[in-house]
Design a protein that fits this description.
There is one protein chain. The chain is of the alpha+beta class. It folds into 3 domains: about 100 residues, OB fold (Dihydrolipoamide Acetyltransferase, E2P), CATH 2.40.50.100; about 55 residues, Dihydrolipoamide Transferase (Irregular); about 220 residues, Chloramphenicol Acetyltransferase, CATH 3.30.559. The chain is built from 11 helices and 19 strands. The strands form 5 sheets. Strands 9, 12, 15, 16, 17, 18 and 19 form a 7-stranded mixed β-sheet that branches. Strands 1-8-6-3 form a 4-stranded antiparallel β-sheet. The termini are far apart.
Length: about 425
């Protein structure tokens, strides 16, 4: 008797996904609720879990295939098929891994044998890519879970470790697949569904919106001093680090209340205004940039904002973000400064009408009181849809954010 493995419900209005990878192969034992495949939707990766314990039968779809909700993509048999009695579909569709992606057998087996409930799709993928035995990694995530960063750190440590002593003086032979001297190689990699969606949405934003960017610079002295003074007490009381994003999120909330158009969007022939602020915060995920939403940021405390951002960042790295985490959002904050960006023109996240771009902090000479002094400065960029936001409104909003950062007391007294 066999049990069908079907594509689960993917979320509101999401009817299709792409099979990113099979985590179990035909003939392998599976347990109830064990992840056996990873699906890529337009926004996040989702595991398909085993509806019953047994042995995985046929793959009825290949990695890279598009599948719809409710489609049968595999079967689970009650016992191991006898030799020669393997399902026809399984015999025909045995996956063939490209030679360039061949991994050490030990690493592959270790990744498969490790408790799948502990490793997220992103971590499993990193384990296989780097050929690392997860049993040798100490997890730094919640409850000791292994994160993608743990795998990468282990891989880097492995690469930097000195080579084992050679038993003989005979020169080692070159790997069979080593490129010849001077050979130029190429590799073609299928775009993930998420990357395709990002590409399409960014292009649509450029084509449909009248994009314009206004800039300003911001003296970070006051925020840096406040953070240095209170960060230890803040973390001790709230259990979360005090970062810069909390200040900018609060400053943005003040600005958006003063200039409602920056927190609105166009829908048909109407402008939709919001009396709340849901801030989409751009964070890096294994397959690209995602923007989970900090809801009611205008009503949250600094600790609430910092905790939400921290939790989303960790979930993005581990590949555990949910679809509902990405829905909505009335304004976006993107921080290219963490990667060293000095200045940029961010693109809005439709249907939103504005995005705030943060950049790296660097000491620069500025004039204060008629004297040239050195201050930690950051360039701010506000990209906006000129169809709904006038230049005066955009500049006013960005200036309000600058003023609140340079004098954080404004945030406390709602000025």
């Amino acid at each position: 008797m066999s049990t069908e493995v079907k594509v689960p419900t993917l979320g509101e209005s999401v009817t299709e996904a792409t099979i990113g990878e099979w985590l179990k192969q035909p003939g392998e034992a599976v347990t109830l609720d064990e992840p056996i495949a990873s699906l890529e939707t337009d926004k996040v990766a989702i595991d398909v879990t085993a509806p019953a314990a047994g042995v995985l039968g046929a793959h009825l779809a290949k990695a890279g295939d598009n599948v719809t909700v409710g489609a049968v993509i595999a079967t689970i048999e009650d016992s191991v098929p006898a030799a020669g009695n393997e399902p026809v579909a399984a015999r025909k569709e045995k996956p063939v891994e490209p030679a360039s992606h061949t991994l050490p057998k030990a690493a592959t087996e270790a990744a498969r044998q490790t408790d799948a409930a502990v490793l997220s799709p992103a971590v499993r993928r990193a384990v296989l890519e780097h050929g690392i035995d997860p049993a040798t990694i100490t997890g730094t995530g919640k409850d000791g879970r292994i994160t993608r960063e743990d795998v990468i750190a282990a891989a880097q440590a492995k690469e930097s470790a000195p080579p084992p002593a050679k038993e003989t003086a005979a020169p080692a032979s070159a790997p069979a697949d080593a490129p010849a001297a001077g050979e130029r190689r190429e590799e073609r990699v299928r775009m993930t569904r998420l990357r395709q969606t990002i590409a399409r949405r960014l292009k649509e934003a450029q084509e449909n919106a009248a994009l314009l960017t206004t800039f300003n610079d911001c003296d970070m002295t006051a925020v840096i001093e406040a953070r240095n003074r209170y960060k230890d007490l803040f973390e001790k009381k709230h259990g979360v680090r005090l970062g810069f994003m909390g200040f900018f999120a609060k400053a943005a909330c003040l600005a958006l209340k003063d200039v409602p158009a920056v927190n609105a969007y166009i829908e048909g022939n109407e402008i939709v205004y919001h009396d709340y602020v849901d801030i989409s915060v751009a964070v890096s995920a294994p397959n690209g940039l995602v923007t989970p939403v900090v809801r009611d940021a205008d009503k949250l405390s600094f600790a609430g904002i910092e905790k939400a951002i921290g939790d989303y960042g960790k979930a993005a790295r581990e590949g555990t973000l949910k679809l509902e985490d990405l829905k909505g959002g009335t304004f976006t904050i993107s921080n290219g400064g963490v990667f060293g960006s000095l200045m940029s023109t961010p693109i809005i996240n439709p249907p939103q009408s504005a995005v705030l771009g943060l950049h790296r902090i660097e000491d620069r000479p500025v004039v204060r009181g008629g004297e040239i002094v050195i201050r930690p400065m950051m360039y701010l960029a506000l990209s906006y849809d000129h169809r709904i936001i006038d230049g005066r409104e955009a500049v006013t909003a960005l200036k309000a954010i600058k003023d609140a950062i340079e004098d954080p007391t404004r945030i406390l007294i709602d000025l």
